[in-house]
Structures are given as C-alpha cells and as structure tokens.
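Example 9 (inverse folding). The structure is encoded as follows.
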C-alpha cells in the first residue's frame, strides 16, 4: 500500500494543508511538541478511518468547530480517496465519495501505528487490550466488525432490561441474541489470539533472544465455563448490579513471558518489547490479508528503546514499501525527510 497525499484542515496543531509522500522511509523530524505525533495520527486516521484511542473530540483544533482529513492511497487493486470529517464527538467517513464505515475502508486501505504509548497494552486496563484485538480483527474481517457492532448494541439493550424494577419481559429475547452473537465473537477472537500469539512469540524471540517465550492468551470473565454456563452462574450478580457481567465485552488478553504474567511481573523493557511484538503481529496479519504491506507509521522511534529494539524497528521499516518515521533526529536509513515545527511542515 502507498499513501500518496494527505490533506488537512483544523487537525490539532497542523497548519500545512496538503502533503505528498514518496515510497520508502520518510523521516518526520522536529523538536518535542512540534506536531510529529499529530501528523502520524492524521495519516493513520486518513488510512484507516480510526483514531488512536478514539480521541475524536481532541482532534479538532481548539476554537474550531470542525476538522477534515483526506488521503489518496494506492492498493494493488487501484487508487482510492478516503475523507474524514470531524466534529467534537463524531466523525463522518467517505470512500470515493460514498459514506461508509471504518471496516469498509479496511478493504482497500490500512496502516499500522507503533508508538511509545503502546506499553499501555501491557500495563493498562483490559479495555485497551480489547480495543487492540477488536481493531485488528475488524481490519481483517468485515464480518467480525459487523457482528461486534451488533453485539455491543444488544449488550446495551440487555443492560437496560436488567435495570427495570420487577423485570423486563423482553430480557429473554435479548439474552438469546446476546448468546448467539457472543459465541460468534468469542470463536473469532480465540482463532485470532492463537495466530497473534504465534507471530508475537516469533518477534519477541528475534528481539530478546531465542530463550525467551511469549504467550498471548484470551481470558474470559467466566473462566473455563462456556458463555451460556457463565451467564447462568452470574444471574444473581447481574440482577444486583443491573448490568451484564460476563461476555466478550469483559474479555482480557493475558501476556505470559517465560511462565510469568507480564502485566504483573514484567519490566518496562519487557513490556515495551511485548507491545512491539503485538504491533508487528498486527502488521504481519494485514500483510497476509491484503497480499501487500500496510503503510507503517513509527512515532518517536527511539523513545525508551535500546539498540536491539530500535534496530529491529528500523529494519522492519526498511523492508516495508512505505514508512513514516518520526523523531527529533532522522534515522540513517531515511530516503526523504519532512521537518515540522509549530504545526508547519516543510520538505527538509
């Protein structure tokens, strides 16, 4: 995949309205707080229809009501235009002039963003790890994205029923639909986590040495019980709390390094390597799906990285048809460079 152009209006602090990108590695260089991360986030939004962390409200420049990001991106099946309209709390996506959802864009355009904040995947809350898994699966499978959207809607309806004093007569109907969708989401997640685990372990061993072993496991709130059994066992608790306490919306990903839970016992360096391994697993899965590499976006590529990790990242970027790499100094392998300061981007 190749990003040809990026157009911007009122996106955070970025001032330059349009940029063009070449193949190979493009360095995005500038001092801290200059807008390097904002530029990579804008590119990611324009390539995927998604924002890191879903921070839509923070993406429109302060004092403005609306923002806009557009990209021209080339897929092996042709060239496409993605447009994203932004306003506080909402976004509108277009693909070649037609309103779409993010999973429609994933058919023809995608990217992987690697940032220092990825360590939150390890030490952060379960919602971040679920978000990672859902994002990856939604890019890989339009069906998964549609099922997950419907599942979340059903959970909301079921929760509303549980809050009704004296009981809601439609609870059983929503419960049947919850189980039907939940079992399908669960099955797709189990398959995906197995494959992610295989790829992440391979990457971790390449970076940290062959004696290290990383396992990626899906943990469900009901433990080993099936979803129907877990739901039946939690009946009293959910009635007392007025909410659905088991199901895929409560899943977590557990990472185990050499038999020890990384979330509890891992060092920051181990967490950084594991988070990098998860992102590279995402990258490889997207390569397999599209039969070509996604655009690779490396934000602050030297932050908290030793020589082995930064060298691995730059090697990955060098093997990718197109990568944007940000930092205070350009990597030695960059073929082109953009300098940014105060939101203004210039060709270096």
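The amino acid assigned to each position is listed next.
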């Amino acid at each position: 995949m190749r990003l040809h152009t990026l157009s911007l209006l009122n996106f955070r602090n970025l001032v330059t309205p349009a940029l063009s990108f070449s193949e190979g590695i493009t360095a995005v260089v500038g001092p801290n707080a200059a807008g390097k991360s904002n530029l990579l986030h804008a590119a990611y939004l324009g390539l995927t229809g998604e924002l890191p962390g879903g921070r839509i409200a923070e993406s429109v420049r302060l004092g403005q009501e609306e923002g806009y990001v557009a990209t021209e991106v080339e897929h092996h099946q042709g060239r496409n235009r993605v447009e994203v309209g932004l306003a506080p709390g909402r976004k509108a996506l277009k693909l070649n002039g037609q309103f779409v959802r993010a999973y429609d864009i994933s058919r023809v355009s995608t990217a992987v963003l690697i940032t220092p904040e990825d360590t939150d995947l390890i030490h952060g809350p379960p919602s971040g790890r679920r978000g990672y898994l859902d994002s990856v699966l939604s890019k890989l499978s339009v069906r998964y994205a549609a099922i997950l959207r419907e599942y979340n809607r059903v959970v909301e309806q079921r929760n509303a029923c549980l809050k009704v004093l004296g009981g809601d007569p439609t609870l059983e109907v929503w419960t049947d639909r919850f189980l039907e969708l939940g079992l399908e989401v669960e099955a797709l997640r189990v398959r995906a986590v197995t494959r992610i685990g295989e790829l992440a372990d391979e990457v971790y061993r390449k970076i940290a040495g062959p004696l290290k072993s990383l396992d990626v496991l899906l943990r469900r709130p009901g433990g080993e019980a099936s979803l129907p059994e877990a739901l039946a066992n939690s009946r009293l608790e959910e009635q007392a709390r007025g909410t659905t306490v088991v199901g895929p919306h409560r899943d977590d990903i557990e990472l185990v390094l050499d038999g020890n839970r990384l979330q509890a016992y891992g060092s920051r360096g181990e967490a950084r390597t594991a988070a990098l391994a998860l992102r590279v697993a995402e990258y490889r899965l997207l390569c397999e799906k599209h039969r070509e590499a996604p655009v690779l976006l490396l934000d602050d590529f030297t932050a908290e990285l030793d020589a082995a990790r930064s060298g691995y990242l730059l090697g990955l970027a060098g093997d990718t048809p197109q990568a944007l790499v940000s930092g205070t100094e350009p990597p030695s392998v960059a073929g082109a460079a953009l300098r940014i300061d105060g939101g203004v981007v210039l060709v270096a």
